[in-house]
């Protein structure tokens, strides 16, 4: 079916057929006759659902993470690993540098990690380390 030459009514009907779940429920809450064009429908839909988009983070985001003074090392590691898991294709060397940068230089673990070791080894050492 060639849709790009279709009229507004057809475009709206086809669009509605692609909706599922909450988006479909949202569409059915619109008042009949309240949409005058496909362009308007697209705008209203985008306005409604833009906040659901996730922002893709890049590896440099990890350099913003720091161990909080009242946070246990275990919690910092858990939080750091969770953030790293959300970054597609994160290089272990970058993660390793960011993890160390997030520790206070006075922290015993920071001194231990300044020796060049792999990301996996850092996580093993960190999980055994006491605050």
SSE blueprint and pairings:
Layout (H helix, E strand, L loop, with lengths): L7 H11 L2 H8 L9 H12 L23 H13 L6 H10 L6 H6 L5 H10 L3
Describe the model.
- The structure is a single chain.
- The protein is 53% helix and 0% strand.
- The protein starts with 7 loop residues before the first helix and ends with a helix.
- The chain has 131 residues and is mainly α.
- The chain contains seven helices and no strands.
- The protein has two domains: 45 residues, no CATH class; 70 residues.
- The radius of gyration is 24 Å and the shape is rod-shaped.
Helix content estimate: 40-55%
Domain tally? 2
Radius of gyration: 24 Å
What is the count of DSSP helices, taking H or I runs of 4+ residues?
A: 7
For the largest beta-sheet, the strand count, sense and barrel status come to: none
Order of H and E elements: HHHHHHH
Terminal Cα span: 64 Å
Mean pLDDT: 81
- Count the E strands: 0
Task: Please state the structural category.
Answer: mainly alpha
Strand content: under 5%
């Amino acid at each position: 079916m060639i849709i790009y030459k279709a009229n507004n009514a057809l475009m709206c009907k086809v669009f509605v057929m692609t909706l599922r779940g909450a988006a479909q429920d949202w569409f059915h809450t619109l008042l009949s006759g309240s949409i005058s064009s496909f362009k308007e429908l697209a705008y209203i839909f985008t306005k409604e659902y833009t906040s659901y988009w996730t922002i893709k983070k890049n590896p440099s985001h990890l350099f913003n993470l720091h161990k909080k003074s009242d946070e246990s090392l275990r919690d910092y590691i858990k939080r750091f690993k969770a953030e790293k898991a959300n970054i597609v294709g994160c290089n272990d060397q970058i993660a390793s540098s960011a993890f160390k940068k997030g520790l206070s230089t006075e922290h015993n673990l920071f001194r231990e990690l300044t020796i060049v070791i792999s990301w996996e080894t850092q996580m093993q050492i960190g999980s055994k380390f006491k605050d």
